[in-house]
Write a structure and sequence with these properties.
The complex is a heterodimer of chains A (about 120) and B (about 190). Chain A contains five helices and two strands. Chain A is of the alpha+beta class. Chain A has a two-stranded antiparallel ribbon with strand order 1-2. In chain A, helix 2 packs across helix 4. Chain A is elongated. Chain A starts with 6 loop residues before the first helix and ends with a helix. A two-stranded antiparallel sheet of chain B has the order 1-2. Classes of the chains: A alpha+beta (about 120), B mainly alpha (about 190).
């Protein structure tokens, strides 16, 4: 590959790379695989126009015990990846809904998939 | 304009920018963290260390030269008090330790020629290796030139912690600044959300 020998151009390109890496530095807001699986299940139901209640979410036995799933929901709420919603007329059922941050996360995943499709690695 | 002249001018500009940023942040650090200075030139939080990382990774050898010149400028009083060799070595270590570490990692294929291979884990590793290397070489230099007043086994720790903390604070401040300028770009790789 041809090297860029101009110092300013090279510095700028390296700066862009470094800025990208710095933006990805861990900040305590990362999701682990279990949290991601729960989030996907919740968002899928929301996408199908039948949002999941907290009770349903903690009953997803293939993802963990109710106590574990409850903690996981709390962590996702703390990370602003899930919010809860009470429907009028039924104050007991608490529905789980994605936040703008969640939507942005999934749209970023979608964009990445599109990029991979358009630029497959040879 | 002749290409090589232009290249030389661009390199000179990068050296000057690096020197100015390093000197400016040295004074800012002196002002903000004066209360936690361990000894002259060693602080428990040393923000210019972050500029060493950012500048050297971005600009390469011109940044090393700029930091070296900036360090010489900061220690210029030593030239008049017979400490010229200490100041000269200090500046050389300050400027070129991060560059040598970067080149070593580049040669091992860890960073790529334009940082293409760099990820956040490697950046954090680089920061820690640089902080350790910088502290060790500075202490070695001071011990070789001034046996009496230096205890490298003790003094190395404040310097290492100061450099590592300072660099991490600067990197995360930069991350925060980028987040403000560009609304949160969420990443989905293993390094972040």
């Amino acid at each position: 590959m041809k090297q860029i020998n101009r110092p300013l151009a090279s510095a700028y390109l390296r700066f862009l790379q470094l800025a990208r890496v710095i933006q990805a530095l861990p900040d305590g807001m990362e999701m682990d695989a279990n949290e991601r699986a729960l989030l996907e299940a919740v968002v899928l139901r929301w996408h199908e126009n039948s949002p999941m209640t907290v009770r349903e979410a903690i009953g997803l036995s293939h993802l963990g015990s109710p106590a574990t799933l409850h903690k996981r929901i709390t962590r996702l709420r703390e990370k602003e990846m899930l919010s809860t919603l009470n429907l009028e007329g039924d104050r007991r059922a608490k529905f789980l809904t994605p936040t703008p941050r969640t939507i942005e996360y999934f749209s970023h995943l979608g964009q990445s998939m599109q990029q991979v499709q358009h630029n497959p690695v040879a | 304009m002749n290409y090589s002249v232009r290249e030389a001018l661009e390199t000179a500009a990068l050296i000057l920018i690096s020197a100015l940023l390093f000197v400016a942040f040295f004074h800012v650090n002196d002002w903000v963290f004066a209360g936690i200075e361990y000894r002259q030139g060693v602080n428990w939080i040393f923000l210019p260390a972050g500029f060493r990382v950012i500048l050297v990774l971005t600009m390469g050898i011109p940044a090393g030269m700029g930091i070296m010149l900036g360090t010489w400028y900061l220690g210029r009083a030593g030239f008049e008090t017979g400490q010229a060799s200490l100041i000269l070595l200090n500046g050389t270590i300050s400027g070129f330790t991060p560059w040598v570490i970067m080149k070593t990692l580049e040669n091992r294929g860890k960073l790529g020629t334009q940082l293409q291979q760099l990820n956040s884990t490697q950046l954090l590793n680089f920061t820690l290796i640089y902080a350790a290397g910088n502290a060790a070489l500075h202490q070695l230099c001071w011990w070789l030139l001034d046996h009496a007043s230096v205890n490298p086994w003790v003094d190395i720790w404040p310097m290492f912690i100061g450099d590592a903390l300072g660099a991490l604070i600067m990197l995360y401040a930069f991350k925060g600044l980028l987040g403000l300028l560009k609304p949160s770009t969420l990443t989905s790789n293993s390094d972040g959300l």
